[in-house]
Predict the structure.
Amino acid sequence: MAGFVAVHTGAGNCIDETKYQRVIKEACMRATDILRSGGSAVDACEAAIVRLENCGYTNAGFGSNLCLDGSVQCDAAIMDGSTLNFGACTNVSRVKNPIQLARRICDAQGSPQLLERIPPMILAGTGAERYADEVGCSMVDPSVLISSKAKFQFNHYKSKYDMVVNCRSAKAASEEPVPVPEPGAEVELAAALDTVGAVCVDGAGNTAAGCSSGGILLKVPGRVGQAATYGAGCWATDTDKLAVATCTTGNGEYLMKTLLAREICNGAFSNDCAVTSLHRTFKQKFLDSPLLPRQQDLYAGALTLLYSPGQSSGEVMWSHTTQSFCVGYMGTSQRAPKFVHSLLPTYSVPGRSCVVNGQNFHLRI
């Protein structure tokens, strides 16, 4: 059986890519093993993300960023390009692998419900956790998902946050001038966008896309991110001529406002050149979007797979406006996965420019 998978650990400002290199390769190998055994694109996509959720270095599952109150709340979604079914969960704290819950919700989209009820597409909070327990997902205490890395980052930035809040409160209550610290932490936080995602195509030409995230550090508890939003975090669409799957990462609110994942896939169907299509979408639908702030840096990344069933070939593309983007990919005919640490060109400005790159692949059936 044939297939191809690509994964990412988030677009941001990666200082040490080696901490992601191993887990990216392991995720690719786990997914291709499933494809070789006859598993579907959805099976492989889920398995790859489970590995990324479990590593502790990424902002997904174990290792997720903490909310402003120190709690952990995770988002995840998966989409099946052959059926167009989509499933997502948000604000879950007791599900070990949120992508598995998203998969169960996605699968249930095609199942008839009693009294002709419409099956849920997105579940949140305690209701999502109750459903996860009912369908057999692995449940844990919320503390199990909090890594030492997440604790350290929370304590570091929470102290900066509290200092700014206290200084502003003192300034408001006093007539004397009180110095307020420079808002450098916001820039650092914006660069730490290590959410995860995967795209996959199987030997039947069916695609899948998925994503998982703990959300932005110090987020307001209850916040819903792009990883659980229809059309923003991931998208997959299969046709007889072209199949496209993509997963995004970056400033969640901006990805949701622009529905970037769906725009990327729609653009691919209207342009013969994948590089041109991706660059145009990032420029017109994101960087220059009237929906987004004009005078603010806009951070985003996307991992996109395009497959032509007639030629049994395709392209895997990565695009980002951030300083860097760690991705990996592997086909079932390859002995080892390929790891790429993509960098924004030196003449480009992070948050204002976009780089697009990629690699062709062929499925040997």
